[in-house]
Amino acid sequence: MVGRLREMRCEVSFLKNADGSASFSQGATCVWASCSGPGDVHASKANEEAMTLDVSYRTNCGDNKFHEVR
Description:
This protein is mainly β. It has strands at 8-12, 20-26, 29-35, 56-57, 67-68. Helices cover 0% and strands 33% of the residues. It is found in: Nucleus. Pfam families: RNase_PH.
């Protein structure tokens, strides 16, 4: 039996309310990524030398809640 590569698709800027977004899928597996911000930060809390990255994921089946990656 010869292995077959599942169809791959990629799309950029597909989320309207994000500053940047991308979608990658192969077969039934799909990954969405988006970037939003920076939001309004008070000058006393601004840090020009660091940034925060929040990562969460949601499964396609099961509880369907967002889970934070730590």
